[in-house]
Specification:
6 helices; 6-stranded mixed beta sheet; Rossmann fold; alpha/beta
């Protein structure tokens, strides 16, 4: 088994210090926040930025790949059902081959893209959007609280944040879960975690797929 790793001081989502050991494999320890249910990897067992980027550069995301488009449609379809025509969207963490943004553009929406490694255009994070999507991104975040608090203010009232990430079920399933074996996956969310996020930030939660959730900002009242 892996060498013992010290317990993280605080949860990177809710900042609670009520953290317990959750699981262990040959390479890493996994910890669970008892407040928001997030499962996390301690910083000392995370890859550095260069190691992380090297893994991402191996990804082959081709906009012409029908299978990849079908995978992304699990995000695009529920969002398209909820947003008005000609809306403005942002795909956060678009990766080296932006595809979801093209799918929304083909449906008549205007899109911006952002990725810290492949589309590092911070100006797009100072504009407002009717919806933001983030597919297979949040499991890579060392500071999900920081990212949520960066994205939520730039979503217009009544707008949507769509997150795609596979969810934790229980300890037994987690111990056998291939998803945790990716060395760039460091934060793992459960249904309870998303309910915590919705409650904490005053959002409406819709769990629409086994790995897709939508969070809606409240409509401002006059």
């Amino acid at each position: 088994m892996t060498a013992s790793c010290s317990r993280p001081d605080t949860c990177p989502l809710c900042m609670s210090s009520d953290i317990q050991h959750y699981s262990q494999d040959k390479k890493r320890d996994y910890w669970q926040c008892r407040n928001c249910d997030l499962v996390l990897v301690a910083k000392e067992q995370q890859l550095d930025h260069e190691e992380e980027k090297a893994v991402y550069e191996q990804h082959e995301n081709n906009p012409e790949d029908a299978g990849y488009r079908k995978f992304l449609s699990r995000m695009s379809q529920p969002v398209l059902e909820r947003v008005a025509p000609a809306s403005q969207g942002l795909d956060f963490g678009c990766g080296p081959g932006p595809t979801l943004s093209l799918m929304f553009e083909e449906a008549g929406h205007s899109m911006a893209v952002y990725d810290p490694y492949f589309a590092n255009n911070p100006d797009v994070l100072s504009k407002e959007y009717d919806f933001i999507t983030s597919t297979e991104v949040f499991e890579h975040l060392s500071s999900p609280k920081e990212v949520l608090e960066q994205l939520l203010p730039i979503i217009r009232p009544g707008g949507w944040l769509g997150l795609m990430t596979k969810r934790v079920i229980d300890q037994t399933a987690f111990s056998r879960w291939h998803y945790k074996n990716d060395p760039t996956h460091i934060t793992f969310f459960s249904d309870r975690t998303f309910h915590w996020i919705a409650g904490h930030y005053g959002l409406t939660l819709a769990i629409v797929d086994q790995d897709v959730v939508l969070l809606q900002k409240p409509v401002e009242r006059l």
